[in-house]
Amino acid sequence: MGEAPTDLEVTDLVEGDGAEATSGSTVSVHYVGVAHSTGEEFDASYNRGDPLQFRLGIGQVISGWDTGVQGMKVGGRRRLVIPPHLGYGDRGAGGAIKPGETLIFVVDLLEVR
C-alpha cells in the first residue's frame, strides 16, 4: 500500500450526474471500508443490505466523510483515503479499527435530500 497520506485524498472513480451532496443535506450512501495498514475490510454497508443515511457537514460521521462526500453527485463513486486525525484518531473504533489507522473507503452516493 505504500506510505499512508497525511491529508484527506479524494478520488472520483465514477462521476455522478444526479443531485449534489452539500453541507446540511441528508445523504444515503453504500460503502466499503478497508484498513490502510492491512488491506482488510472492516465494514461494508453492502453486506448489511442497508445504506447509511446521515446529515452532511454537522459531525454525525467522521470528518473525513463530512468533507469527502461533499460535492459528490448521485450515481457517483468516490474513494476516500482518510488519515487518523480525520477518522477515529488514537482511539480507534471497537475491535475493527486500531488506534492511529488510516482508512480507505469507497463510497457510492445513492440519494440526496
From TrEMBL:
> Do the record's keywords include Disulfide bond?
no
The record's annotation in InterPro entries points to: PPIase_dom_sf, PPIase_FKBP_dom
A Pfam family it matches? FKBP_C
* E.C. numbers: 5.2.1.8
Q: Which residues form the PPIase FKBP-type domain?
A: 24-113
| Keyword annotations of the record | Isomerase, Rotamase
Q: Give the catalytic activity.
A: [protein]-peptidylproline (omega=180) = [protein]-peptidylproline (omega=0)
An example of a GO molecular function for this protein is:
peptidyl-prolyl cis-trans isomerase activity
Similarity field: Belongs to the FKBP-type PPIase family.
Q: What is this protein called?
A: Peptidyl-prolyl cis-trans isomerase
